[in-house]
Design goal:
It contains five helices and three strands. It is mainly alpha-helical.
Length: 178
């Protein structure tokens, strides 16, 4: 003798805020909605997408402006300190000016590498890596005890600053083009 199967209430999938993906909404005997977890072994609801913060035009504009400004700030804040750097390192103006040339060389050379790397590994890892290089170069330049170390730090800064300038424009196209 078989037992009668209880009638299950109608289910509908939900993927709203605060609810588990793949969960189902049931009506309790009292008529109140109850969220039941998805069945064991079931993946996420096929229609639901993971919640990723949306990149709005305003947020993209702010991020792009900050990334683009890293390069010019590095030269505009550095140039007025030439006389102080000549006194600290006890060197001539030509040696200090060469650090700007090396920075611009690193900035230009990194553009040849930045694009293909971002196509291969994605924009975000390349930008984060570039900003990490920029911070490392800034620390090396800030702690430099000689003009040679300062020049190496500025070269690394140039490599790092390039990523924000080169990839911010590409990221805008990626996000907002159809």
């Amino acid at each position: 003798m078989s037992l009668p199967q209880p009638k299950m209430p109608k289910r509908r999938a939900v993927a709203g805020p605060g609810r588990m993906l793949g969960a189902s909404l049931y009506a309790s005997p009292a008529g109140n909605p109850v969220v039941a977890p998805p069945p064991a072994g079931a993946g996420a609801h096929p229609i639901a997408k993971p919640s990723v913060p949306r990149l709005t035009p305003l947020r993209m504009s702010v991020i792009g402006a900050l990334l683009i400004s890293v390069g010019p700030i590095s030269t505009n804040l550095y140039t007025p300190a030439f006389t102080l750097l000549m006194q600290i390192f006890n060197t001539d103006e030509q040696a200090i000016r060469s650090t700007v040339t090396v920075y611009l060389f690193g900035f230009a050379a990194a553009q040849l590498v930045c694009g293909p790397l971002s196509d291969r590994f994605g924009r975000r890892p390349v930008v984060i890596g570039g900003l990490g290089l920029y911070v490392a170069g800034s620390m090396i330049a800030g702690l430099a005890g000689s003009v040679i170390v300062l020049t190496v730090g500025r070269l690394i800064q140039g490599f790092g600053a390039c990523s924000g300038m080169a990839l911010s424009r590409v990221m805008v196209v990626d996000v907002f083009s159809g």
